[in-house]
Amino acid sequence: MQGFKHWQIKRDSDGLAWVTLDVAGASANTLGREVLEEFSTVLDTLDREPPKGAVIRSGKSAGFIAGANIEEFTKLANPAEARAMVRRGWDLFSRLAAVKYPTLALIRGHCMGGGLELSLACRYRIAIDEPGTKLALPEVMLGIVPGWGGMLRLPQVVGPAAALDMMLTGKNIDAKRAKKMGLADECVSARVMDNAARMVVLSGRSPRGLPFVQSLMNGPLKSVVANGARKQVAQRARREHYPAPYAIIEIWEKYGGNALNVPSDSPASLDAIFGSATTKNLVRVFFLQDRLKAFGKDSDFAPKHVHIIGAGVMGGDIAAVCALRGMTVSLQDQSVEKIAPAVKRAAELYAKRFRGDRKQVRFTLDRIVADPQGAGLAQADVIIEAIFENLAAKQALFKDVEVRAKADAVIATNTSSLKLEDIGAVLQNPGRLVGIHFFNPVPKMPLVEVVTANNTDQNAARKATAFVRKLDKLPLPVKSAPGFLVNAVLGPYLLEAMRCIDEGLPPETIDEAALAFGMPMGPIELADTVGLDIAMAAGKSLAGDVEPPRKLTALIQAGHFGKKSTQGFYSWENGRPHKGPAAQAPAGLADRLIKPLLDATQRCVTEGVVGDADLADAGVIFGTGFAPFTGGPMNYLQRRA
Ligand code: NAI
User: Fold this and answer.
1) What residue's CA is closest to ligand 1, atom 16?
2) pTM
3) Which residue has the higher pLDDT, 315 or 76?
4) What is the CB < 6 Å shell around ligand 1?
5) Can you tell me the distance from the alpha carbon of 75 to that of 77, in angstroms, rounded to the nearest whole number?
6) CB-CB contact of 58 with 21 (8 Å)
7) Nearest to residue 501, comparing CAs of 463, 555, 434?
8) Residue 315 CA to ligand 1 centre (angstroms)
9) Among 197, 223, 226, 395, which is most exposed with the fewest C-beta within 10 angstroms?
């Protein structure tokens, strides 16, 4: 009866229509133009013979709907085309919301952006209780707004505070949480989902309304809520860098959640948003991230057991992240006492991640085994060394590791400044050694550099890369060279900032100049956070004989190492620096600070430390937080030229 390419309608004996989206030729469902146009025909078909209810579900094992088709954004030629795209989704979902028969979205797996907006236009939503089920409106991360009805309907369903929080951060909501906040009407297991859908869609119950106070907040008190949200956003992102979050608040507050109602000369208009360089650059960053995610796909390596030597700051946190991803970890250090703090930190991390679900915390912690004798080494699929930064100690260790490791195990060092060639020189097969360079703090930092030397076995590097993906981190292949990519670009930037201190500029002024440029944290605060001893050591290995900054030397001599010792360039209390007001920065200060970083990135590309300019941008953004709205240092250089 139908002949659809992406959709399927099946009517059952109860009079229900089961509407399945299974986008042709794709592993995940996205809402491209053709898919939306066909959905309109689906609605026509249902209108001709209205069902007792319609259940919308996915035919993909990968999830429900990943969102709009982002490829199509990159092809929008002018504001009129952007408007037309928004109008297509807005009108279609308004039509879905208005159908006479009850509708239900059966959400299993990811339900993002346009997918959630489609679900919000249904009368009911059921979320399947599985780890993969995640609901979000992540448009803001691409510099755009949820224009297909999200800004109208999400506040009506969950109240404006929770809705703005979701729309302004783009964060994921799991199935249980979705039920708790009213985003889903039910949260059920996959086993009973079809029955649950049948019962709910035929129940005749009225959709859940907002409690009285929430409805005030979505009505007469809108401006109070909006002002609060604006203040919160201002702490994280400046309007000149990131217009989208401010536009979301304004569109909800003043334009009934309909982006099409905003006059085109307003900064919250679709013209302004789609015309901004930020949006183009954030979409670019999205694709760069996809490129990093694709590394390691050419390997079916599935490590189960990781052995980590050195349970300090890095080794301990690497262990925690591995166990979080389901791997068994044996954690070795010189004594059980040295391992205990790492296990305690892991417990704290899990308590936060699992929001106090003690059973989950216990299960995950049980996967970390304290192993002072190193008994786990011989069974491990991946062995990571994270002991002191000392060549002789690392060489001695790897000699022993090579003999005891399984023949096909990956053996890796987390060194940040030693040469892979030097550490590997003592091995019978130096080509086996790879660098897997994590960043501090490991649970938060998305990037991991996978380091190879000229003689590194490519298969070992592939396996190391696949392992990094299993941790859900972003692997960046880099060549063994001082500082690899990330530290090689951060070092000169921090050095320049500390030279400014020696010239008498206050730290607040320097940091403010970098923040105004769009860095997530100022360089002086960053140096204090990393640790001044570590910054000094990194500087020495990168800059060689260059005289270190005077103030840095003086602080270290006085035993002031920054945040960890509560005194550095700033004094620290409860993990926060005491900052005075920033003085007016001298003209050109931001450019002066950023220039060494840009130069170093350019040099890494020229010297082949990193594969190409795009990968350099990806590495610097995900490894240092470098202003994502610029699209990365190489993109910035090119645009500025
Ligand atoms: P750390 O000093 O916190 O921990 C090192 C641990 O290794 C200590 O617990 C020590 O008892 C243990 N250890 C030393 N020799 C050992 C041996 N022979 N057998 C077993 N355990 C031994 O050091 P951190 O900061 O964790 O650094 C470790 C490695 O990671 C270094 O190579 C460092 O360059 C690298 N790294 C450090 C980063 C950081 O921000 N701290 C960032 C990225 C890499």
Assistant:
1) 387
2) 0.91
3) 315
4) 309-315, 332-334, 338, 386-389, 393, 397, 414-416, 438-440, 534
5) 6
6) yes
7) 555
8) 7
9) 223
